[in-house]
Amino acid sequence: MLKLPIYMDNHATTPMDPRVLEAMMPYLREDFGNAASRNHPFGWKAEAAVEQARKQVAALIGASDKELVFTSGATESDNLAIKGVVEFYKDKGDHIITLKTEHKAVLDTCKRLERVRQERLDELKLMRLAQLTGAPVSRDNLAELSIKHDLDSDPVYRQWAEMPTGGARVTYLEVEKDGRIDLKKLEAAMTDKTILVSIMLANNEIGTVQPVAEIGKLCRQRGILFHCDAVQGIGKVPFNVEEMNVDLASITSHKMYGPKGVGALYVRRKPRVRIAPIIDGGGHERGMRSGTLNVAAIVGFGKAAELARLEMADESVRLLRLREKLRKGIMDQLDMVTVNGSMEHRLPGNLNISFAYVEGEALMMAIKDVAVSSGSACTSASLEPSYVLRACGVEEELAHSSIRFGLGRFNTEEEVDFVIKLMVDKVNRLREMSPLYEMAKEGIDLKSIEWTAH
Amino acid sequence: MAYSDKVIDHYENPRNVGTLDKADPNVGTGLVGAPACGDVMRLQLKISDEGIIEDAKFKTFGCGSAIASSSLVTEWVKGKTVDQAMTISNKDVARELALPPVKIHCSVLAEDAIKAAIEDFKKKRESRQQKA
């Protein structure tokens, strides 16, 4: 029997595998100890459980257990990797290269570092202008006086500006139409001040898998650290920090059938990568992340990682078959439908489709028995459609019409059959109500119309 | 985000979806919004020579609230005079459907669509009168 609603949003989060919950239960009950308690069996038991989980997670990515720092999740791991490297290597340089389609945890961290640098430079300008004018300078006059005194060619200011600011300069690389990076553009963006490249394994919206091994090789040749937000791809496509020359990798548990609120940052030991902590305290996790460990969640994370490692090969074949069934079932029965992102380099469970002339949120409302996501602006408060789709050159109207399906471990063929039929029915119904579909069918070029933007 | 029962009712059972003959001199067509913004509404009104709205049809590309807003105004304008229809404001629509702030633009679009359709009808009538 088909059970409704159907969950097909496995890029947002995944349900916990029952085997994971089972492994966690003792640590939520009798084995409650603090892993940092060194003097009694409660602590020893907790510590042993954490170390076992550390090995399980390390095995999944080809790392050693000593290279993993447990965090609260991938957002923290991304913050720690980027801010930690920028602070630690500030004397070496301050340039970061990333992608326009990265997760917000990476992009917003980079934007903050840019702001920090700009604020520091403004302070330096104020100091220099005070020297030059012999009087204190207000921020209101900063722009005007900077031009008047031509600070950009002032040797003293220029020397000051070369000193570490605590922030960073950031290059946000464009992606190609299929969502993939152009390695030549990456290489061209590298400078002698570049300390970090941060590029994801797989995209959370369109499932595009990046050429991580090639990026790692390039970074290694140039002596630049490589951070990979591996959240979406881990356990779905092969990922090995040794083979791929990854220096730092963000992982989270809840995208691979483990509990929420726990993740890890892989930090390479050979050659050694250093990061400054962003949370200070008791010196847990070799000083890189203070805070009492969430033992039960870490145990679940470890179990989830072990299951992912053992079952990935079979599971990815099954997911790919279901995904292709879904894609063909929809595309054979509906016209004016496009897939967003690369078909060749794609997560097996991901399908991101634009249904032209139908708005994404309306479509999600029509298929309320199926949980999916949309790139439509209407699903967010910002009123801007998906920045990932826009970066891939998808037109705004098609970005508004996109639906993301994320198939996972617990989806069945019966569910896929149900979703195909539902999608076809509802898209047809909404197109019957769509003035754009009617106009397109009449052969009217929608681009020739002067729309009243609002 | 949760929708109000009225939005869901209009979305699931939209009133007056369809197309009127654009060439009919008594039909005014309003097409407002933009595909790039994610909402386009087309409202068509059939207006008698006495200025009574006899029929109304819509088609909308947009979210559930946009579809509900257009469906609602087709119900409201039927039987009204042109002058009465012109007094329908987006606030009335937003209140009736209990739209949250982020969806107010849907009700604005519905008001704009009524005005655009009536304006189109008036233009048609003027050009007819000029010819006559």
UniProtKB/TrEMBL annotation, chain A:
The active site is at C378. It holds the Pfam family Aminotran_5. It comes from Archangium violaceum Cb vi76. One of its GO terms (cellular component) is L-cysteine desulfurase complex. Master enzyme that delivers sulfur to a number of partners involved in Fe-S cluster assembly, tRNA modification or cofactor biosynthesis. Catalyzes the removal of elemental sulfur atoms from cysteine to produce alanine. Functions as a sulfur delivery protein for Fe-S cluster synthesis onto IscU, an Fe-S scaffold assembly protein, as well as other S acceptor proteins. The modification N6-(pyridoxal phosphate)lysine is found at K255. Its EC number is 2.8.1.7. Gene3D superfamilies: 1.10.260.50, Aspartate Aminotransferase, domain 1, Type I PLP-dependent aspartate aminotransferase-like (Major domain). This is Cysteine desulfurase IscS. It is found in: Cytoplasm. It catalyses: (sulfur carrier)-H + L-cysteine = (sulfur carrier)-SH + L-alanine. The keyword Chaperone does not apply. Its cofactor is pyridoxal 5'-phosphate. [2Fe-2S] cluster binds at C378.
TrEMBL record, chain B:
GO terms for molecular function: iron ion binding; iron-sulfur cluster binding. Belongs to the NifU family. A scaffold on which IscS assembles Fe-S clusters. It is likely that Fe-S cluster coordination is flexible as the role of this complex is to build and then hand off Fe-S clusters. One of its GO terms (biological process) is iron-sulfur cluster assembly. This is Iron-sulfur cluster assembly scaffold protein IscU. Residues 2-126 form the NIF system FeS cluster assembly NifU N-terminal domain. It comes from Archangium violaceum Cb vi76. GO terms for cellular component: cytoplasm. InterPro entries: ISCU, NIF_FeS_clus_asmbl_NifU_N. NCBIfam families: iscU.
